[in-house]
Amino acid sequence: MNDDIKVKILKDAVIVAGHPRSGTSLACQLVESAGVKFPSDFAGDDYNKGGYYELALSKDLSKRLIKKAMTVENTIDMNKIIERLNSCRGTAGLKIVRIPAIFFYRHVARNLKAVFVYRNPADVKASLFRRGISGFSPGWLENNNALIAAYENIENSIVVSYESLLSGKEWVKQGFQKLGLDVDLDLVKKEERTQQRSRVLVTAEEEKMYQILQELERESCRV
Fold it and tell me: Which of 104, 110, 67, 99 is nearest to 213 (CA)?
């Protein structure tokens, strides 16, 4: 970190993180129903009708943080994001899809909570293909390895699947309540689901990772 430019302190915040097409926008919608404000630069479309809950600068900065860490330029831009989050009344929310970037926020956060979202890798790939996207960096496996590391290092965090969010079961609500978030599961619209039980090929490593994520979900959410 540059000695001349100090990173500002991030006040109360909730980060929602997950690989693209894993249900992060749905998770943001639920967290927002608990009173968390997500500043956003992107409206909804046919793929995410409720909106994307993302900041343009944050999306760009995440790429640069992973490649170059805290350069002077990155420190300045992180301060801009933190200022925008801190200006929100009450708790602010931030969505991150390049999960390794979350650690740079963790180091400067005063009271950080995190909701980590995952989804069946075959359905993720199929949903990305549907949008004409053949790949994303970091890949599903690498991104979810970072998710596990972040869950292990952020005390106030839970892991929940897209499929569980859609289920609307009481234990899902209880998982959010462990973070002090009273979410409204009635907001979930199951008919907006894009892919289900896709037969797109996944690797043995991805299948193993999916099993580990399911174990972490049971550990963190089920009471």
Answer: 99
What residue ranges do the domains of the chain occupy?
13-221
Q: pLDDT tens per residue, the chain (223 residues)?
A: 445 689 999 999 999 999 999 999 999 999 999 999 999 998 766 666 667 899 999 999 999 999 999 999 999 999 999 999 999 999 999 999 999 999 999 999 999 999 999 999 999 999 999 889 988 999 999 999 999 999 999 999 999 999 999 998 999 999 999 999 999 999 998 666 677 788 999 999 999 999 999 999 999 987 5
CA distance 55 to 194: 24
Q: Which CATH architecture has domain 13-221?
A: 3-Layer(aba) Sandwich (3.40)
Q: What is the pTM of this model?
A: 0.93
Distance separating alpha carbons of residues 207 and 205, to the nearest angstrom: 5
Are 94 and 58 in contact, with CB atoms under 8 Å apart? yes
